[in-house]
Amino acid sequence: MFRRRQTDDDPTLAESLAEVETRAAEAAKGRPTPKRRDAQAERAQRMKPPKDRREAYKMQRERAKEDRSKTRNALVSGDERYLPSRDRGPLRRFVRDWIDARRTIGEFFIFIGLVVVVANFTPNDAVRSYTTSAWLALLVLLIGEGFLLSRRLKREIATRFPAEKGPHEGSRGAVFYGIMRSFQLRRLRLPKPQVTPGTTV
């Protein structure tokens, strides 16, 4: 009550308090608060109907470009609002974190496979024989690891998301989603990993 009376009597004090509150709001959000006039102008520009087909096509391209930019940024930052539908939701987020918290043979498959393929072109018969054996052993290891990962991931999903059912949005689709992610190089995974190997999820 006293504060309001003081600010009414002293306009300078009222402006200072308003400025302090505005700066506090900007600091909390991490970005400057746009002026009301600017926000209204931007909103009016977005809602303004196109004059002709060419302008409508241009507006559509700009919106599509903006959506793609938001999606790319979300794939790096993990922002759920703009992720593709296949990556959205707490279940998919958990599967990604669970896989990313582990080192797997699958993520090194490209490197190992490249070495095996190069070695297979050597003129030495003994080297080619060892290469074939190594390739078969790698395939067995990958299949075994995928089987074990799928069983463990199914148990984790059943424990933490007991209501999830169905081949796509439920546990079956989520397990396949996780196994496919485990075969990707860590630095090339999208959305980008949000946890480090060894993290308890």
What does this structure look like?
With about 200 residues, the protein is mostly helical. It has 3 domains: about 50 residues, no CATH class; about 30 residues; about 100 residues. Helices cover about 65% and strands about 0% of the residues. The chain contains 8 helices and no strands. α1 packs across α2 and α6 runs antiparallel to α7. The longest helix is centred in the last third of the chain and has 36 residues. The radius of gyration is 27 Å and the shape is elongated. The relative contact order is 0.10. The N terminus is likely disordered.
Give the distance, in angstroms, between the N- and C-terminal Cα atoms: 50 Å
What gyration radius follows from the Cα positions, in whole Å? 27 Å
Note the total helix count. Answer: 8
Largest sheet: none
Strand proportion: under 5%
Q: What is the approximate shape?
A: elongated
Summed over residues and divided by their number, the pLDDT gives a mean of 79
Helix content: 55-70%
Number of DSSP strand runs: 0
Briefly say what this structure is:
The protein is mainly alpha-helical and 201 residues long.
Provide tags for this entry:
201 residues, mainly alpha, elongated
Layout of strands and helices, then pairs:
Layout: H1 2-9, H2 11-29, H3 36-47, H4 53-77, H5 90-100, H6 109-120, H7 125-160, H8 171-182
Helix pairs in contact: 1-2, 5-8, 6-7, 7-8
